[in-house]
Predict the structure.
Amino acid sequence: MRAKYTRRTNLRFMLWVYFALAGGFCPVTGRVRKRTPYGVHSRKGASSIARNSFIQISKLHDVRGRIDYICSHARQENLYATYQTADMEFWKNLAKENQQEFIKSGTEGKCIEARELIIALPENHTKYNPQQVLETFTEAFKNRYYIECVSALHHNKRKTNYHIHLIFSERQLLPEPENKIASRNMFYDEQGKHVRTKKEILDTEGKVRESCKIIPKGSVYESRMFTNKNQYFKSDEFLAEEKKNFTELINQYIDNPKERLQVFDRNSVYLPTKKIGKHNPKAAEIEKDNQTRQEWNYVVDEALIAGVDEKEIRKVKKQEITTQVSKSIADNGRKPGLFHIFVEQATKHLKTVIEKWRLPPKPVLKVDMIEFRKMQDTKEKLEKQIAVIRNLEQYEIPNLREKLEEVKGLFRRKERKSLESRIANAQERLSSMKTYLNTIVNNGGYKSVQGFMRVYKKAEGEVLAYQKAMEQYRTRGGQKPPEEESIREQLRRLAEEAKRNEISRKITVKKEKGAR
């Protein structure tokens, strides 16, 4: 049953409103409150399971009829409050202008005169004055977009769903109407479309056809009272933002963090569960559906713990649930009873993914280790040759030149000639050694040092990637990862392993045949 409102209850609520707005001390509880429009206490004994907020949007093709429906005590059993920021004349003119613009555009389908948000509220909001609650939510929305609204606060028939209907205009009222004056007679056919000549609206007898009209020169042929529609209101971003805004507004008045609502992420790996209201005739069906969803969520947790990537889980969810449900609706219509079947199949598929993730395939070495060992030998020869060249360039030849500069005088010609000869021999050896770098790689089957080093680096990268993959494979397989080794020791160990396993694969990295 809905709470009974007494003067004492309303006084308590008004004290909350006043001191919450002031952001000060509350005499009811003796606590300091944050700045909030009204206070809401969390219920004792409420469930600690996190609940998702519910806010949905719909298009209205008859805004005046919808306003009458949600605000009528005769048509609503449990209507507690209504609130309007504009009179019915505003909504009448809005509907008229929307219909005119729709006809003018020539678009097929139905005209959208306004839009409606339905906002589910926690049951603890029933403790307070419904009018105050409704006005707070409506004014918060209006102040964000500066548009006119009509709202109503309801309970469903079984009083298990406390919610707000909030109808809003997509257009704003202009400060002054914009009138267009006809510069000549204007003619309109039965559909209200402008035609160029009078002949187009005459019948065979030369009379104006029924429902066609003529607007004389100097008369107003078009009048606008509203701005263009705000395209943001039909975007997904708008609804997502309002879900966030209204959820935050609801949660501001719930003291217990465990009872606060959250916005469900549709891209989440989880599936939301449904609330089961009191005396719901489909309670058993919903309970079964929720159990299936909870089992999926449990297996998702298991997959995340096992290290399965979230992208892989979302892929399974999309292929096995979202796509299958869409296909079923297209083929057989809406049959909610089939949903748990798709979820069960998806759960089994996800368990298979977990097992594959737990037992990853053994890495395969894509490089012939015998060939790679030859490349290592060639690399070592190059490094040794470079070391000798550096010694000649940086130490031996500079030292000989310094000695040559120190040897001066007529009686030391023989010594000078000896030093000059040694310098010439050293330079000749240096030139020969530089030339021999290409000979080393040529003997290995490569045309240049550059070509050899490109192939070597690619092969080395493949080997090190294989070694890293093997470490991960052993770790995930329950084996102790190997101790750190030097790169050279790692390569030698891998070569021996390849020989033991009689690997006879050809090197996949082709030798470059380019020039220097």
